[in-house]
Design a protein that fits this description.
It is a single chain. The protein folds into two domains: 234 residues, Thrombin, subunit H (Beta Barrel), CATH 2.40.10; 84 residues, Pdz3 Domain, CATH 2.30.42.10. It contains six helices and 18 strands. It is mainly β. The strands form three sheets. The chain has a six-stranded antiparallel barrel. A six-stranded antiparallel beta barrel has the order 7-8-9-12-11-10. The protein is 14% helix and 37% strand. It is globular, with a radius of gyration of 21 Å.
């Protein structure tokens, strides 16, 4: 991110962006770009609610009742949201802007990107939004974030890799500021009214890793078209499943520290415990989450054996081989998956 954009002058920048929000919501056709879609893109924004049984694998960490946002992307009312809202759900609903509640079915959940899809069981009043090209979204671009809390002006403050503690790696995440409170499933909309991303997280270092600058992380919309047919047909990407270990880790001063191990997951069955440091994967040193994940995934598909070298303050250096699994098999997903 260019050095001139700092937390100090963000407020001044946003004063101009607020004017853009008002104009964006009012223009029909929207924007001045050639080929811009007609209509108000905010009409596509909806709410999403889900109920998850207490026995679900993710109930303890993500809750049994979840709510967030979504955006209509299909003429049949197909709603795109962030997958963790609907993962392992037994009941899902779409909340329209007038408060009407429409029951929905889970269509897909893609672990690699984080996208989720819902199909309403009745016609929605919302109109679909067109998908944009997030690969052409540079830093310092003015954007609009829209979700359950309404529209809010924002600025793209960085484009970079994001590694999540849950064995998740997004090569080209979109980071915006200021932070939007109802970020889960929120729509990231460009000046031409097209959808550029789906809200995933609130982060403390949106501008640069390790530098305090609160904002949000969005999954870029350009990751959706390559897997869309698979999601509609199979409920997940057709690519071979990556090996999953069931570890929750963080980067700590150049080390990969295990914070938690998924109960009954592959790592737990191999005897791996929390508070150990992962120093090597198959003999190759790792010092970051992204290095760790790529080293594991390079070994093959789900089911492959993953040799780990661990450093434990009590037990010293250990070498453990984990028989990896498929996270979809671990989760208690709807039978339609």
């Amino acid at each position: 991110m260019p050095a001139r954009l700092t937390a100090r002058n963000m407020g001044k920048t946003l004063s101009f962006l607020i004017l853009g929000v008002l104009g964006l919501a009012a223009l029909t056709p929207l924007g001045a770009a050639e080929g811009a879609p007609r209509g108000n893109p905010l009409n596509a924004v909806v709410g999403v609610r889900a109920k998850v049984p207490p026995s679900a694998r993710t109930a303890e960490t993500l809750g049994a009742e979840r709510q967030g946002g979504g955006v209509v992307i299909g003429e049949d009312g197909l709603v795109l949201t962030i997958g963790y809202l609907i993962m392992e759900a037994v009941q899902t609903e779409i909340v329209e802007q007038d408060g009407s509640v429409v029951p929905a079915d889970v269509v897909a959940y893609d672990y690699d990107t984080g996208f989720g899809l819902l199909r309403p069981l009745a016609k929605l009043n919302a109109t679909p939004i067109e998908l944009g090209d997030s690969t052409r979204l540079p830093e310092e671009t003015q954007v609009l974030v829209a979700g359950p809390d309404g529209p809010s002006a924002a600025l793209v403050v960085s484009r970079r890799e994001f590694a999540g503690y849950w064995e998740y790696l997004l090569p080209d995440a979109i980071f915006t500021a200021p932070p939007y409170r109802s970020f889960g499933g929120a729509a990231l909309i460009g000046a031409d009214g097209r959808l550029l991303g789906i809200g995933s997280l609130i982060v403390a270092d949106a501008a640069r890793p390790g530098e305090t600058f609160p904002g949000n992380m969005f999954v870029p919309i350009s990751a959706l078209p390559p897997i869309m047919e698979d999601l509609l047909r199979e409920g997940r990407s057709a690519k071979p499943a990556r090996p999953w270990l069931g570890l929750y880790a963080q980067e700590l001063r150049g080390h990969v520290l295990i914070n938690r191990v998924a109960p009954d997951g592959p790592a737990a069955r191999a005897g791996v415990a929390a508070n150990a440091i992962i120093t090597e994967v198959n003999g190759h040193a790792v010092s970051s989450l992204s290095e760790f994940y790529r080293a594991v995934w390079a070994l093959g598909e789900a089911g492959v054996e993953v040799p780990l070298t661990l450093l434990d303050s009590r037990l010293g250096t250990q070498r453990v081989t984990v028989t990896s699994g498929d996270r979809y098999d671990y989760l208690k997903l709807d039978p339609s998956y």
